[in-house]
Amino acid sequence: MRRNRKVKILATIGPASSSEEMLKKLFEAGADVFRINMSHTDHELMRTLVGRIRAVEAAVGRPIGILADLQGPKLRVGKFANVKEALTLGQTFTLDDNPEPGTSKRVYLPHPEILSSVEPGHRLLIDDGKLELKAVKSDGKSITCTVVAGSGISDKKGVSLPDTDLPVGALTEKDRADLDAVLATGVDWVALSFVQRPEDLAEARKIARGRALIMAKIEKPQAVARLPEIIELSDALMVARGDLGVEMPIEAVPGIQKQITRAARRAGKPVVIATQMLESMITAPVPTRAEVSDVSIAVFEGADAIMLSAESAAGAYPVEAVAMMNRIATKVEADPTYAGIINAQRSEPEATGADAISLAAREIAETLKLSAIISYTASGTTGLRAARERPQVPIVALSPILNTARRLSLLWGTHCVVSPDATDLDDMVDRACRIALEEGFGKPGDRVIITAGVPLRTPGSTNMLRIAYVGSDTH
By CB count within 10 A, which of 45, 146, 335, 382 is most buried? Predict the structure, then answer.
């Protein structure tokens, strides 16, 4: 089954979509990668879900990627004597280290790292920004604040700190246990929440040891400020617009989304746009016009993937949501303005042989109107470089390694096929042409361009281009 679009669709699994039958329907509707949210999934259920996805993969005969999304630190206030309290604008309210139940004047904050890090002038956003406090005084044991916006607070509400750089890593004890568990099942991608600095990625990388690729979720102002360094240390990025819109002015999020997308594209790292893309489809069979436009903007920008969260995990219309996303993306990519917008943001290749080969492959394919670019890739690097060029023609990534093909299923414009290694150059060309024919990327007489490394089976040695005819003995 080949997709008629370049952008990939990531669907979150949840109560509405966890059966094998439903997973198969979601794949057939257009889902390329499935996301397991570890905030709501224990290890036993996670292993069951991975098993079901792998069963669907075997049934459909296509590599399917799995992303495990770690919860990250959850910062919350304590409980109140009356469950909730009304507050008035301008009043003083204190967060402290006293575990007694809260009142309208104070509440317990069980996070010493916050108490010691917040400085006067810093904002504290409670309950996704519904209550905004401004720190007036801090002594390491309590933070005295003024109520700036909002009218109430209740038990265990989340705390966001847009102005404060917290001395905590992105991985909690729960995350470390979850990471070990998901790596043992062979998931392809791990998304890291609460990334503030490049060092936050180092621990996850050390634990993963290459068994899964690491995706940094950009959801904090501190991460936006250090984006180039974070991009360098991550394998992919997710624009987590929900938390980003709490911690930063909501009107700044569209511009930040574009900045992150373009920076990731320049670096040749996949980028996923997430949160509330078709939010109304949680309860309605069709989205709003504004949501359709939102999805289309991510596609026009050349994002690698667009993601559904509650729409596919807990909504009433999971299959319809995936199908709708598929239809929007397909229509946008057929728009006469699409190619021009994608081309305008293309980045310069790096001064490496592999980058030069990828650039040349795109230019030759587009000039000669070839049917496809066929890239042999063991590690996935050649596939990444081919996708970075955003060619008008499809990319077919051939890999002898199933894990590589699964990882590349997240990549823009890349159709992954697991194929045994070629024995020699002629076998490589024959195999590429045959697969192009079988997978629907060319008919007899069409031409494709093949990129590979010679000698064969040498990682990172992409140095060869070959134009070949499909369904012909003449190469």
Answer: 382
List residues bridging with 399 in a β-sheet: 418
Residues annotated as catalytic are: 35, 76, 217, 275
Phi, psi of 340 (to 5 degrees): -65, -40
Helix, strand, coil % over all residues of the chain, rounded to 5: 40, 25, 40
Evaluate whether 6 touches 308 at the Cβ level (below 8 Å).
Answer: no
285-292: list long-range contacts, CB under 8 Å, 24+ apart.
285/316, 285/317, 285/320, 286/324, 287/324, 292/328
CA 273 → CA 206, 239, 254, distances in Å?
Answer: 26, 5, 11
Alpha carbons 413 and 303: distance in angstroms, whole number = 10
Q: Which of 297, 383, 293 is nearest to 338 (CA)?
A: 297
Compute CA 405 distance to the chain's CA centroid, rounded to the nearest angstrom.
17
CB 23 within 8 A of CB 424: no
Return the closest-CA partner of residue 395 out of 431, 370, 430. Answer: 370
Specify whether the CB–CB gap between 41 and 338 falls below 8 A: no
User: Which tens digit of pLDDT belongs to each residue from 79-99?
Assistant: 999 999 999 999 999 999 999
CA separation, residue 70 to residues 32, 47, 194, 280, 319 (Å): 20, 15, 10, 25, 25
Using the CB atoms, write b or e for 433-454: b if 16+ within 10 Å: bebbbebebbeeebbbbbbbbe
Instruction: Report the first-to-last Cα separation within the chain, whole angstroms.
Output: 27
Quick one: pLDDT band at residue 459, thresholds 50, 70, 90? low
Cβ contact 189:213 at 8 Å: yes
Tokens of 87: 């507050």
pLDDT in tens, 209-267: 999 999 999 999 999 999 999 999 999 999 999 999 999 999 999 999 999 999 999 99
Model pLDDT, residue 457: 63
Give dist(CA 260, CA 256) in Å, integer.
Answer: 6
Closest CA to 323 of 272, 274, 271, 281: 281
Model confidence, pTM: 0.93
Residue 307 Cα distances to 164, 400, 419, angstroms = 29, 28, 29
